[in-house]
Here is the input.
Amino acid sequence: MIKVDGLVKAFGDNVVIKGVDAVFEPGKTNLIIGRSGSGKTVFLKSVLGLYEINEGEISFDDRSISGMNKKERNLLRQELGMVFQGGALFDSLTVAENVMFPLHMFSSMSEEEKLERANFCLNRVNLVNANDRFPAEISGGMQKRVAIARAIAMKPKYLFCDEPNSGLDPETSIVIDNLIREITQEYNITTVVNTHDMNTVLEIGDNVLFLKDGLKAWQGSRDEILNSDNQDIVDYVFRSSLFKKVKDALRKGN
Here is the structure.
């Protein structure tokens, strides 16, 4: 579990995150959503430890980041998996080599064990016969699956995904969403996803944090959005006529 208490992050006089509280639970897909400029990317990077926060507390299973020394922070980082927006694969490495990269960095496995682990992770994301191919030789959806395989190679307790569906077609986006949810539940990972994809919200939003102007405007499940009286979250999720029709249909079905 990740717990955030009163997080404040400012850049000079510009206060971007203004005292946000949140809880992200294991085995659930925890989503961060909000309009451009709402602070969701800064919030995610603050939780990851990429930004030093000005005020507040961030705890990973009751371990406070602020109380950690450099060695303890480095050990915590080994428990984190990260799927970057663009995949961030190394173009000069094969698919298998990309997945083994964190194992080379942080594990004491033999080369045989590393390859076995890479093969397991690639099979888990339904990628076969792609080990020796380079990122440029596979599709965008396959690249995202390689990125997920690499992120789980070290058996992380916490998985962070930054816009995992960016640049993907709707059908492939659904595949990635389902894969993230399956892995989260299967390994009981605390997964945090930064997204602007409303399909993702309605499909896998076990716990949704909605930020507005650096503040927590709403938090709840995808099912609770349907009956929420918070107009901000309703307008944001169902802002298009298509989603409004979906909302009305879902409400009628309840």
